Amino acid sequence: MSVAGIFVKSMIGILVIAAITAYLWKLNENGTPMRWFTLGGMLGAIIVSILISVRQNWAHILVPLYIIAKGFFLGGFSSYAHRNFPDLPYQAIGVTIITFFVMLLLYQFRIILVTKKLRSIIITATVSIMVVYLISWILSFFGIKTHIWGTSWFAIAFNVLSAIVASFALLLDFDYIERYKNKVPKYKEWLATWGLLATLIWLYVEVLRLMQKLAIRF
Q: Is the pLDDT at 143 greater than 90, yes or no?
């Protein structure tokens, strides 16, 4: 596993996601509903992620499928913002890129050390947030609305917290790459790419949701 290999795979993945997203935006502008693209992409990404977790040696096949699924999810998810607030998706991309490099510098210069305790805190916070999202999503099928989806100050605060945790989750990706580069088989590059893209996409989604809420509220 090499850093260069992870970089190339990540860039290709980002380009594929961007291409699918742009295509779905055009479909949305022509009146095509995005609901099923978003839902299908999200469920597809979850299923593929589970498969990757239990069949890591299939990562070279499964991670590209994950990238495609995430492309459909992001295309559908961000179509509303692109249609109603055309500049927001690009601003969210900019914030995500800046955050990535800030966290990378903090990690490289050891301003923030990824200790065992910090790793446990980040993982616990990440799992907790995902559980909240999952429960909220399930409750929505029964017509029960939770406070994390609206534009209340509580919902905005939850978004801010989630974005912060996603930012710190990047440190775990950097740490994984540094600890295992040049030490593990080549196919592990796909696993590192999967983790890095998953975190970046999560961060982008949280930033975009936060910007939409602020735009609607103000």
A: no
